[in-house]
Design goal:
The chain is an alpha+beta fold and 354 residues long. The protein is 44% helix and 13% strand. It binds a DNA duplex (11 and 11 nucleotides) through helix 2, helix 3, helix 6, helix 8 and helix 9. It comes from Aequorivita lipolytica.
Length: 354
DNA sequence: AACTCGGGGTA
DNA sequence: TACCCAGAGTT
């Protein structure tokens, strides 16, 4: 164990008690609410997740309420938060806890780790915060704080780095107050030891911080570069009948946005104009059975919807038809479906100009 | 071990 | 533009 450990932990917790934000999940030890907050905050900023947490707690105060909700409702409430597998796993886990565990969450790391959507970080967070177990969390904040303070240049996104930082955090944790220690180191990373231009001159740790002393703060933590994003080309076919009915489809299978809804999609390898689009077999399949009167491009400039690993170059085509299909819905009801932000943005713009 | 999964904030 | 965010699951 590093000699500094007791001192580091004590100082860190003192800072936390003076500087922590008041957040709703800090007023409870209820494992359901801790679990809910931790799932929502995975790869998500506190300020982005906060309104979703409040919505979920209000709609589903107990794990049974979440378990009894339709999956579509859960996805709709999750809309806009991203990484939708979290919502699907959240719902599945609520059902298991509610129906197979009598509504009681596992009270230790090993048991929590078996739940869908709960990995090393989340299991440690719940075990420490709700059950006072000495399980150290390692999130992006922890990587940053520890890599700088101890001068560790092992990349954080390879297995060796993850193991090294987990071991170190586990050695540093205050075993008398593990939940407070975990939240303290994360809060310190989020609020003080920030990625860019941290205020090291006023940092409580600067005398003992390796990176500050060596003037290497900007170089840590080390992360292997991600590969460049892919470009994709989406053509959404916005069917519109005379009485404003449209067609939505639910995304199935693998890939982005599983189980969310969208307009019929024709994906191409490049940006398409109308005549090229009409020549595709996919267009043939789409238009079968539709009485198409006219097709027009809604957005002259393609929308570039940016995900972390792909850019979606998107065109919305207004497809006017004379006879609506059985499966159609009023376009005004699209807002009741869980849709990607890309679709939600189109719909609101569509109604502004309508 | 590498890849995939969102959307938004920040410099 | 590039990087990051209270990471996990799949290939």
């Amino acid at each position: 164990m590093p000699k500094i450990a007791p001192h580091f932990s004590k100082k860190l917790i003192a800072w936390y008690l003076q500087n922590k934000r008041e957040l709703p999940w800090r007023n409870t030890l209820d494992p359901y609410r801790i679990w809910l907050s931790e799932i929502m905050l995975q790869q998500t900023r506190v300020l982005q997740g906060l309104p979703y947490y409040l919505k979920f707690v209000e709609a589903y105060p107990k794990v049974e309420d979440l378990a009894n909700a339709p999956e579509d409702d859960v996805l709709k409430l999750w809309q806009g938060l991203g990484y939708y597998s979290r919502a699907r796993n959240l719902h599945a886990t609520a059902k298991i806890v509610s129906e197979e565990m009598s509504g009681v969450f596992p009270d230790n790391y090993k048991g929590l780790l078996k739940l869908k959507g709960v990995g090393d970080y989340t299991a440690s967070a719940i075990a420490s915060i709700s059950f006072n177990q000495p399980e150290a969390v390692v999130d992006g904040n922890v990587y940053r704080v520890l890599s700088r303070f101890f001068g560790i240049s092992t990349p954080i996104n390879i297995t060796a780095g993850q193991k090294e930082f987990k071991t170190l955090a586990q050695q540093l944790i205050d075993r008398a107050q593990p939940g407070t220690f975990n939240q303290a180191i994360m809060e310190f990373g989020a609020r003080f030891c920030v990625p860019q231009n941290p205020d090291c001159g006023n940092c409580i740790f600067n005398e003992n911080c390796w990176a500050f002393q060596q003037k290497r703060v900007a170089e840590l933590p080390v992360k292997i570069k991600a590969k460049p994003v892919k470009k994709r080309f989406f053509n959404y076919m916005v069917v519109l009948s005379e009485n404003e009915q449209t067609i939505l489809q639910q995304r199935t299978g693998k890939g982005i946005w599983q189980k969310l809804y969208e307009f019929p999609l024709i994906e191409t390898s490049e940006e398409m104009n109308l005549s090229a689009l009409k020549n595709l077999q996919q267009f043939e399949d789409f238009s079968k059975g539709l009485n198409i009167e006219d097709i027009s491009l809604f957005n002259e400039k393609s929308v570039i919807h940016k995900l972390s690993h792909q850019h979606l170059n998107t065109r919305f085509w207004i497809v006017e038809i004379s006879e609506e299909k059985e499966s159609s819905i009023p376009i005004s009801e699209v807002k009741n479906y869980a849709v990607p932000v890309l679709i939600a943005d189109f719909v609101s713009e569509f109604f502004e100009n309508y």
